[in-house]
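User: Here's a chain of 97 residues. Predict its fold as tokens.
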Amino acid sequence: MKPDVEAFLLVPIAPHTLNDRPMVLPSSSEIILQLNENQTDMVGIDIDGDTMSELKPGQELLIKKAEKTVSLLHPENYDYFDNLKSKLLWGVDNRND
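Assistant: Prediction complete.
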């Protein structure tokens, strides 16, 4: 997703079926996750790889856009698509190597 797109990107980690696909939602969305009250285990809340908390049965987690924003700095002449091309080898044909 292009960095200047204001959106939430929800991506399943290690999905167990092909039906679990990434979702792109408007940044104005409010997402509520609720652990089923019949669930006996707690669920860990990991954000960007860090465990932040646990969700207990019946509890809700509200995800929404923060009021404050962050500005990212890039080197001069930084090009998002050149960076992707380099990392993902777009346009490189390795069949004859």
